[in-house]
Design goal:
Layout (H helix, E strand, L loop, with lengths): L4 E3 L4 E2 L11 E4 L5 E5 L11 E6 L5 E12 L4 E9 L8 E4 L6 E2 L10 E8 L4 E11 L6 E10 L11 E2 L5 E3 L4
Antiparallel strand pairs: 1-14, 2-13, 3-6, 4-5, 5-12, 6-11, 7-10, 7-12, 8-9, 8-11
Length: about 180
């Protein structure tokens, strides 16, 4: 027991490795167009990009999704999480496997202008990739915005604090010397 150390989170491996590469977002559903772009004016984690989705027309529905080619194994449980912020639209995670089956949806955030994390557990039915919809619009008004950042998929039934990459046993401790 060392009073100069603090628990930072369980060892974790974030399977999403392409988030900071600036690629991966696709617009889908044609009744309410939106734009998706990086937004350097927003930060939650200093080492992790923030994506901004903006509705460009009123009515209808539209969403942007990211395909993450992550190594999933049939029958294994994973948990996906992501941070959202919006004053007008809720954000949530909607996932399915490569076949379009095994659909799961997280609860939605409250559109109150604060960063909120949502998570959802799923058990893969196939080996391959998972499609994750992380900016979602339904019945939008032009100019509505949702920000998303720090997506994480772990081979675990519980969500751990966000990590870009891997957090080992020794990195799980935060040095509190002098704090």
């Amino acid at each position: 027991n060392n009073p100069d150390r603090s628990w930072k989170g369980a060892p974790a491996n974030n399977i999403i490795t392409t988030w900071n590469s600036g690629t991966g977002w696709t617009y889908a559903y044609n009744s309410s167009p939106l734009t998706v772009a990086d937004d350097p004016s927003q930060t939650l984690y200093s080492d992790t990009r923030v994506v901004k989705g903006t509705s460009t027309s009123s009515g209808g529905a539209g969403f942007a999704y990211a395909d993450f080619a992550i190594p999933t194994t049939a029958g294994v449980t994973y948990v996906c999480s992501c941070w959202f912020k919006s004053s007008t639209r809720p954000g949530y995670i909607y996932m399915h496997d490569v076949t379009g089956n095994n659909v799961v949806t997280s609860s939605a955030t409250i559109a109150d202008g604060t960063w909120q994390r949502v998570s959802k557990e799923f058990t893969s039915t196939t080996s391959g990739y998972v499609r994750i919809h992380m900016v979602t619009y339904n019945g939008t008004a032009s100019g509505e915005v949702v920000w998303a950042t720090a997506p994480q998929i772990e081979q675990s039934p519980v969500v751990t604090p966000y990590v870009l990459g891997t957090r080992s046993n020794t990195q799980s401790l935060l040095d509190m010397t002098g704090q």
